[in-house]
Amino acid sequence: MNNFDFHRPATVADAARLISGAPDGKLLGGGQSLLASMKLGLAAPSDLVDLSQVGELKGIRVEGGSVRIGAMTSHAAVAASTEVQRALPALAALAAGIGDRAVRTLGTIGGSLANNDPAACYPAAVLGLGATVHTEKRTIAADDFFKGLYETALEPNEIVTAISFPLPAKAAYVKFRQPASRFALVGVFVSQGPAGVRVAVTGAGPSVFRVTALEQALSANWSAAACAGVSVPAEGLNSDLHASADYRAHLIPVLAGRAVTQAG
């Protein structure tokens, strides 16, 4: 691991100032991906700006028909929140199924979204619910946030501050997980709410994506049977030692049907 300067600001303003002044700085959320990359020599930042002490980036509140979660809120805190469990149980269940206890304790929702791992769970919830990502500069709609493999709409050194999830009438997330990492080989989030029916898939492609054919089928008939009648093309999907593109394509409508049944 390379030498670097370590900073622990107390406010978003201080964090923004420190990261903008670093020649090659990185923001540190939970560190579940960044620190591993540094150990492998895949990342060599000049500075680490640790956001763990920035209180304004933590917390959960339900307001105005949405759940707003601070970017530095851990997966474990989301899973354990009685407010989330009541208002948006699908999101609490998703958070409870991320990684293992250590990952859920340290990992943060903002870090997960900024990293945009192709098999991460939170991107499916953000896109599947039509959420809004807040930064210290602006707001970004879910449909505009995810750009590709580990790529988002965030500008260099832009800080995710919170995520607002609109409350759906129905929602659920089901994933077929890789047993060692517990990442999603395929994960499907379905919702029926203010933005209509949305179906978001993680783990199957280079980045999270929506499946229009499933959304149309479920808009006409909210049932597992409607999902069974949809065929998802394998072109462009991931293929690796864990699952082929064809297998992932097959799983998408199957898991969507299970999610619809779970959502009720």
UniProtKB/TrEMBL annotation:
<dbReference type="GO" id="GO:0043885">
    <property type="term" value="F:anaerobic carbon-monoxide dehydrogenase activity"/>
</dbReference>
<feature type="domain" description="FAD-binding PCMH-type">
    <location>
        <begin position="1"/>
        <end position="170"/>
    </location>
</feature>
<keyword id="KW-0560">Oxidoreductase</keyword>
<dbReference type="InterPro" id="IPR016169">
    <property type="entry name" value="FAD-bd_PCMH_sub2"/>
</dbReference>
<dbReference type="GO" id="GO:0071949">
    <property type="term" value="F:FAD binding"/>
</dbReference>
<keyword id="KW-0274">FAD</keyword>
<dbReference type="InterPro" id="IPR016166">
    <property type="entry name" value="FAD-bd_PCMH"/>
</dbReference>
<dbReference type="InterPro" id="IPR036318">
    <property type="entry name" value="FAD-bd_PCMH-like_sf"/>
</dbReference>
<dbReference type="InterPro" id="IPR036683">
    <property type="entry name" value="CO_DH_flav_C_dom_sf"/>
</dbReference>
<keyword id="KW-0285">Flavoprotein</keyword>
<dbReference type="Pfam" id="PF00941">
    <property type="entry name" value="FAD_binding_5"/>
</dbReference>
<dbReference type="InterPro" id="IPR016167">
    <property type="entry name" value="FAD-bd_PCMH_sub1"/>
</dbReference>
<protein>
    <submittedName>
        <fullName>Carbon-monoxide dehydrogenase medium subunit</fullName>
        <ecNumber>1.2.7.4</ecNumber>
    </submittedName>
</protein>
<dbReference type="InterPro" id="IPR051312">
    <property type="entry name" value="Diverse_Substr_Oxidored"/>
</dbReference>
<dbReference type="InterPro" id="IPR002346">
    <property type="entry name" value="Mopterin_DH_FAD-bd"/>
</dbReference>
<dbReference type="InterPro" id="IPR005107">
    <property type="entry name" value="CO_DH_flav_C"/>
</dbReference>
